[in-house]
């Protein structure tokens, strides 16, 4: 400031020249003007100083902020050093106390920070990269898990009834037909597949698409399993059945005969539970293995074959008239006795029309408590069938010998046909007690009520035999 404080006693110096003011009023006016001038000067100086300080401050703060972002520790050290070294611009000394203090000027300067590094942009790009990487990984996982595996040799898989989609997927993965069971089952749910799958054996090739596999299951394109087919004729014994199965390659003869003696394995028929357990039966299942043509998968066990044949017996019994069990009770017979009579008819008769007649002879003899004297029971006991039985054959000691024992044998002697079972249940009403084969090539019989008539019939039979020769 251009202020002169040395000659206050002699007045004050004006910018318009030196002049002594002795007049009090004039001095007062001059002092007032002078004070006003001083205040304006101080205000101007203060404003300039504040503006300069603000500019320096903003510049310093911006620099400090930049240092903090790039090197926080350096910024702190720089701030401390600036404070100690008087790096801040020096402020001018306060005006003397006897002079009026200039009124502070309120300023609301807007701070414009320096441009920051592109941190947010980099953060966004990094996050975007991570999301894209995860998404790409998920897409690769799905693509790799659902794409077909490498081609290979055909594989057979079996879909069982009621198998769920997840189990099917696991089966396919185990056999190398798909890569990922979890993804495959999820894909099937998404496509609403699996409910139309048909049970069976399928031949699938590694490399097939999932659509091709599902299409086969939906269409039921099963592979015909390797099977074995055989026929059990009517009148076969258990031993003959075992030999027939062995010849067909369906079973081992010894194993089959062993299984035919183990009741714990028999689950095919409800009637096997009523079999006698006194040990009198030569083969417990004799007469219960129904004669028919069967087809089994290769490798079927002896127990599976037996139970299939037992189940066929039950099915045939169910085809009898509805009153068959009532009729059986009225006659005082059990199912075991019915099958025994039917087996005798089966081994004695060839022509179906004669089955009910022979059944009536058996019934009439049982009523009179006469020995049945049926040759077929003796043949059953022999290791080899004979064309003509000898007298010594009729003396074999066995409960199956109907020449020595009255009544029925302990059990069936062969597998009866449906016609024989039906004839045993519904015999004709006759008075016949005897019959003999005609031996004329017709496979029919001559029947008689009396023994005398029977002897005549025997003569006719022998004559017919001679005439054939």
UniProtKB/TrEMBL annotation:
Organism whose genome encodes this protein: Cohnella yongneupensis
Compositionally biased intervals (Basic and acidic residues): 31-44
Main EC class the enzyme belongs to: lyase
Catalysed conversion reaction: a peptidoglycan chain = a peptidoglycan chain with N-acetyl-1,6-anhydromuramyl-[peptide] at the reducing end + a peptidoglycan chain with N-acetylglucosamine at the non-reducing end
Enzyme Commission number(s) of this protein: 4.2.2.29
Family of this protein: Belongs to the transglycosylase MltG family.
HAMAP family for this protein: MltG (MF_02065)
Protein name: Endolytic murein transglycosylase
């Amino acid at each position: 400031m251009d202020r002169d404080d040395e000659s206050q006693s002699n007045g004050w110096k004006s910018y318009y020249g030196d002049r002594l003011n002795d007049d009090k009023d004039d001095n007062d006016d001059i002092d007032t003007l002078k004070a006003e001038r001083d205040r304006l000067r101080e205000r101007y100086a203060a404003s300039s100083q504040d503006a300069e300080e603000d500019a320096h401050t903003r510049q310093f703060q911006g620099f400090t902020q930049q240092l903090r972002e790039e090197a926080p520790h350096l910024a702190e050290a720089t701030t401390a050093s600036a404070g100690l070294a008087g790096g801040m611009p020096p402020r001018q000394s306060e005006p003397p106390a006897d002079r009026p203090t200039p009124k502070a000027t309120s300023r609301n300067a807007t701070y414009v920070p320096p441009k920051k590094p592109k941190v947010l942009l980099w953060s966004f790009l990094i996050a975007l990269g991570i999301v894209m990487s995860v998404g790409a990984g998920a897409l690769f996982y799905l693509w790799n898990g659902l794409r077909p595996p490498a081609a290979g040799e055909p594989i057979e898989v079996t879909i069982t009834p009621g198998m769920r989609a997840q189990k099917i997927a696991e089966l396919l993965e185990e056999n190398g037909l798909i890569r990922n069971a979890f993804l495959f089952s999820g894909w099937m749910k998404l496509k609403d597949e699996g409910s139309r799958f048909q049970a069976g054996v399928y031949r699938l090739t590694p490399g097939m698409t999932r659509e091709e596999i599902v299409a086969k299951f939906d269409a039921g394109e099963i592979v015909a399993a390797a099977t074995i087919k055989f026929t059990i004729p009517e009148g076969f014994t258990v031993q003959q059945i075992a030999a027939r199965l062995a010849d067909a390659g369906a079973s081992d003869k010894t194993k089959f005969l062993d299984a035919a003696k183990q009741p714990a394995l028999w689950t095919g028929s409800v009637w096997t539970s009523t079999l006698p357990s006194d040990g009198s039966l030569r083969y417990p299942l004799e007469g219960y293995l129904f004669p028919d043509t069967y087809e089994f998968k290769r490798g079927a066990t002896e127990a599976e074959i037996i139970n299939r044949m037992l189940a066929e017996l039950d099915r045939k019994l169910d085809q009898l008239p509805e009153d068959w069990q009532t009729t059986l009770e009225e006659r005082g017979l059990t199912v075991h006795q019915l099958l025994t009579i039917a087996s005798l008819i089966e081994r004695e008769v060839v022509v179906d029309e004669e089955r009910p007649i022979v059944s009536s002879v058996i019934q009439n003899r049982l009523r009179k408590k006469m020995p049945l004297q049926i040759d077929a029971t003796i043949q059953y006991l022999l290791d080899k069938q004979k064309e003509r039985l000898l007298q010594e054959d009729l003396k074999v000691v066995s409960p199956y010998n109907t020449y020595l024992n009255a009544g029925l044998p302990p059990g069936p002697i062969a597998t009866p046909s449906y016609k024989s079972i039906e004839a045993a249940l519904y015999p004709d009403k006759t008075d016949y007690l005897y019959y003999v084969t005609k031996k004329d090539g017709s496979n029919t019989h001559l029947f008689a009520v009396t023994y005398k008539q029977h002897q005549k019939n025997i003569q006719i039979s022998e004559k017919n035999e001679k005439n054939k020769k």
